[in-house]
Amino acid sequence: xxxxxxxxxxxxxxxxxxxxxxxxxHEAKSIHKRIVGLTEEQCINAINRDDCxxxxxxxxxxxxxxxxxxxxxxxxxxxxxxxPPKLASATPVNGATEGAAL
Length: 102
Description:
Blueprint: E1 9-10, E2 16-17, H1 20-29, H2 40-47, H3 52-72
Helix pairs in contact: 2-3
């Protein structure tokens, strides 16, 4: 008889992979599915860092949302309105007259 030890990697959704890279790729591709159906308590725990794993998932999903919005142009600032250039005033400051003694 021969004993064999097999190393396998299980993703968060229970799917088993032979390699770590394949498991990580699957988790990265399906990470958004982890936030479906979260309760208010779970969200609060993630915000308070009581559930650091869920907090990390929410941060990654937030980055994905931001990247998608940037790609779509949703986060671009509107162009500034062009105002006419300011010209120097023809009247002296403080009502002083030209040539007046100081």
